[in-house]
């Protein structure tokens, strides 16, 4: 019927009203609102509400949603017990996937999804949306302390999502600028059309699996270095380059060997990712706030972007969202293997928005394939082979 397209490039896999992007102009919108405006004026809570419910909330709606998020931050003791048995040397994304997958054991109810009628108005859908979104941050922060042999820091209900997240991660009340920057990072990573992890979420959700399983599938997909795992690789790459003076030679050698410049390139954007533009601005703001006292990796990144523009720019390969995010997180004292979990916390809003959108008119994903194997043949008994 139709032609096989590797990576499904350009093949519409769903119909969605959640976000849109113009890869030629570098414009990303959530429900029609430009990401640059949301990063400047909104909060993660408000943006999550927008993605999930389709409209910006009124003051009262936002207060109610935010209050629910704050009241759902605690993680069950038994989830903590499960986490305790995981090896501290494991990657936090593996831990996160395990912990999220376990939530369904403690909050059963996926049979609500198999009942008749629209699922979008079920209490279960709403409660699990809030519960999952609220606990993602707590799980990630708990692990930071548990793997260092410390007790986790309990969430605080008097702080917004971003501020509380930084507080739980570091154990200290964060610098207000750090909290604002973290909030913007959460807004910027919350949604991005039908990317690999969102597609994984939709495939899982189309079987009417429970929302924690939907998010666990997406977390596993986000973990790979070609997707969310790139932010950690960027920092390693900048450390390896070591100095702005080494950028030219490093880039030349990497490209000659067909290596990867982490944090560069995107299936959809042929110009600089608008999220990278905003994250770079935030990094400049932080540098000013700290009187220039930021990691030298930032200068290496800026030089790499300049040199990359000459060599990769003509192919439409430019910095993506992962290029500057890690440098910012590192400035806030966050270890590099926690960068992708931070991405997952935020993207949970988008994954669950897509899950809910799909539930209203669900059809199980069941694509076809082009078979290239052997045709029907006779079985050969073992002693004749
Ligand atoms: N460094 C070096 N070369 C690159 C890069 C890069 N970062 N990105 C693409 N290219 C080259 C490819 O080698 C290929 O070259 P060729 O035509 O000579 O074979 C050409 O550009 C096209 O690249 P594809 O991999 O076919 O592009 P695709 O759309 O499939 O991949 C991807 C996009 C996976 C993001 C790719 O650009 C990449 O690997 N980037 C590095 C990893 C990264 O930063 N990922 C995060 C993406 S953002 C996100 O997921 C949140």
Topology at a glance:
Layout lengths: L18 E4 L4 E4 L2 E2 H7 L2 H10 L5 H13 L5 H8 L7 H15 L16 H24 L14 H10 L5 H14 L6 H10 L5 H12 L7 H12 L5 H10 L17 H16 L7 H15 L10 H10 L7 H21 L26
Antiparallel strand pairs: 1-2, 2-3
Helix pairs in contact: 1-8, 2-16, 3-6, 4-5, 5-6, 5-10, 6-7, 6-16, 7-8, 8-13, 8-16, 9-10, 9-16, 10-16, 11-15, 13-15
Bound molecules: acetyl coenzyme *A.
The site of acetyl coenzyme *A has 18 residues, from loops.
Q: Strand order within the widest sheet? A: 1-2-3
The rounded distance between the terminal residues' Cα atoms is 38 Å
Count every helix, treating DSSP H or I runs of 4 or more residues as helices. 16
User: How big is the Rg?
Assistant: 22 Å
The CATH superfamily of the largest domain turns out to be Citrate Synthase, domain 1
**CATH top level label of the largest domain:** Mainly Alpha
Report the average pLDDT across residues: 95
Give the overall shape, derived from the CA principal axes. globular
What name does the CATH topology of the largest domain carry? Citrate Synthase, domain 1
CATH architectural category of the largest domain: Orthogonal Bundle
Q: Ranges with pLDDT <50 over ≥5 residues?
A: none
| Helix/strand order | EEEHHHHHHHHHHHHHHHH
Query: Please, how many domains?
Result: 2
Helix/strand class: mainly alpha
Q: What profile does the largest beta sheet have?
A: 3 strands, antiparallel
Beta-strand residue percentage = under 5%
Fraction of residues in H or I helices: 40-55%
Beta strand count? 3
Molecules bound to protein:
acetyl coenzyme *A
């Amino acid at each position: 019927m139709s032609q096989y397209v590797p990576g499904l490039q350009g093949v519409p896999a769903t119909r969605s009203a959640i976000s849109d992007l113009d890869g030629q102009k570098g414009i990303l919108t959530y429900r029609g609102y430009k990401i640059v405006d949301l990063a400047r004026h909104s909060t993660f809570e408000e943006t999550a509400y927008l993605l999930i419910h389709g409209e910006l909330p009124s003051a009262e709606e936002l207060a109610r949603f935010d209050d629910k998020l704050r009241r759902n931050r605690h993680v069950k003791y038994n989830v903590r017990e499960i986490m305790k048995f995981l090896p501290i040397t494991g990657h936090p994304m593996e831990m996160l996937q395990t912990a999220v997958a376990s939530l369904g054991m403690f909050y059963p109810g996926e049979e609500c999804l198999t009942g008749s009628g629209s699922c979008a108005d079920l209490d279960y859908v709403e409660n699990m949306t809030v519960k999952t979104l609220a606990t993602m941050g707590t799980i990630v922060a708990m692990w930071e302390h548990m793997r260092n042999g410390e007790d986790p820091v309990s969430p605080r209900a008097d702080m917004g999502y971003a501020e509380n997240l930084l507080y739980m991660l570091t154990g200290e009340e964060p610098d207000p600028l750090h909290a604002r920057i973290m909030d913007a990072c959460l807004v910027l990573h919350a949604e991005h059309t039908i990317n690999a992890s969102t597609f994984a979420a939709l495939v899982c959700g189309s079987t009417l699996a429970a929302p924690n399983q939907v998010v666990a599938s997406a977390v596993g997909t986000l973990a790979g270095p070609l997707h969310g795992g790139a932010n950690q690789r960027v920092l390693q790459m900048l450390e390896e380059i070591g100095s702005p003076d080494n950028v030219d030679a490093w880039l030349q050698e990497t490209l000659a060997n067909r290596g990867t410049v982490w944090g560069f390139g995107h299936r959809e954007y042929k110009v600089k990712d608008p999220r990278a533009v905003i994250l770079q601005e935030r990094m400049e703001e932080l540098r000013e706030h700290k009187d220039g006292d930021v990691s030298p990796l930032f200068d290496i990144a800026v030089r790499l972007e300049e040199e990359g523009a000459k060599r990769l720019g003509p192919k439409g390969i430019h910095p993506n969202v992962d290029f500057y995010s890690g440098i910012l997180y590192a400035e806030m004292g966050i270890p590099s293997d926690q960068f992708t979990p931070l991405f997952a916390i935020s993207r949970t809003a988008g994954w669950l928005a897509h899950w809910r959108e799909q539930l209203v008119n669900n059809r199980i994903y069941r694509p076809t394939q082009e078979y290239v194997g052997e045709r029907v043949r006779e079985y050969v008994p073992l002693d004749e082979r």
